[in-house]
Amino acid sequence: MPAQNQPTRATNPVLPGFHPDPSICRVGDDYYLACSSFEYFPGVPLFHSRDLVHWRQIGNALDRPEQLRLPASMPSSGGIYAPTLRHHDGRFWLIVTNCSEGGGNLIVTATDPAGPWSDPIPAPDVPGIDPDLAWDEDGTCWCTVAGVAQVRLDPSTGQTHGTPHKLWSGGPGAKAPEAPHLYRIGDYWYLLIAEGGTERGHGVSIARGLTPTGPFEPCPANPVLTHRGTDHPIQNTGHADLVQGPDDSWWMVFLGVRPRGGTPGWHVLGRETFLAPVTWEDGWPVVGEVTTDLSTLPWPLSPAPAEEGRDHFELSALGPTWISVRDRPTELCTTKERPGWLTLHARGGSLDEPDAVFTGRRQQHLTCRARTLVDPEQGRGGLAVRLDERHHYAIEASGTEVRVIARVGSLRTVVAEQPVPAGPLVLALTISDPPPPHGPCTGPDIVSLGIEQPDGTFTELAALDGRYLSTEVAGGFTGRVIGMYAAAGTVHFDWFDYEPLEG
């Protein structure tokens, strides 16, 4: 199943949906990008591109249980935070923080970014989150973390040398100086950071010095990127990384959100990855306009081949775009038990449980449709839109009945139910724009859940306000994931179909 339906034109966001904290590196004519994954397994999705706008997921850096352990006690929006991906001395290096009990900073390496990646190298003395790797001319590796502090590091062993020292923490009194990236460009070392928090006050600032350890002089035009206090349709812009394009011009990847509806505006897809041009004036980067249309890029586009939106589960393992909550034991989630079907064995009684057996894909379009053919004869399960344990909508089948369940905060209710004939049936949901009239209290979208009749007719059982599956309501750092789950017994799924409608 594709990571996204590849457009024939170049648009922002370049990685729509829950793809935050982008880190990018260029190797020859190829670009590779990594994102945060939080409570989902496998962790750290990895993408490849030739033109910076069309990306194809090639794997996940942490795709084995021995690489990534996320305990059920870990809250949603814990787990894997803010990787840095770099290529040095013929090898790819990825450093990331596991913000769960017994986690910490770790390093994995690979010669091929599609994998396999090494077992993690712990870096226990690297403090904090958002670690960055940069090598100076003599091969010394410097690790810079949120705060912003720096320590010398041997990335092959995870051993630090010396004690961490403070560098520069952005504007006076700036909230949450984080996401540091250090680069040698021309005569200077540049320290790029995020500040202001990852909400509406988010921004990007930069400083420069003659050595990787400073002292650093702040750019007089800081923040070099922010949409705080504006009516720009893309908000929360920050957590950036710099890269040169195919023509060696400079570009910035960064996260942003697309809030919709009335006040305060709700974003439901999570933090997405955007692209903007960068020019240099007096030795400082100047970030160009952030637009949704990237059709004027100064190099040829390289769209990936079109991929099917339907997964028939005919392969022996799930593709890299499928993610599960905290873990994915093969005895609970398999395509081998019933050939051509995905089989889920329940563990826990509902999606409210932290160990729910759920497998889905990121919602990547503002409006879309998802469907699955489910056989619930031996259990109970269905199709869900998940933000976390306390915020999800589901259409659930149990033999001869289907019901729509809504979980919003501490409230859980069966919104609708209807008898159905025994046997497999198609469950469906559609996410669409809210109907008029629109006003200050209009939500971002409507989630309609129901069943599809044999003739293809959709029978809606419930239409629910999408604001309750938004970050502004639920909190946290993730976005919506649409997928299948088992709440009791064994549930089989013949296929899953995701179809963008627009946006």
TrEMBL record:
GO molecular function annotations of the record: hydrolase activity
Record domain Beta-xylosidase C-terminal Concanavalin A-like: where: 310-499
Location of region: Disordered: 154-173
Keyword terms of this UniProt record: Glycosidase, Hydrolase
Domain of life assignment: Bacteria
Protein family (similarity comment): Belongs to the glycosyl hydrolase 43 family.
Name used for this protein in its record: Glycoside hydrolase family 43 protein
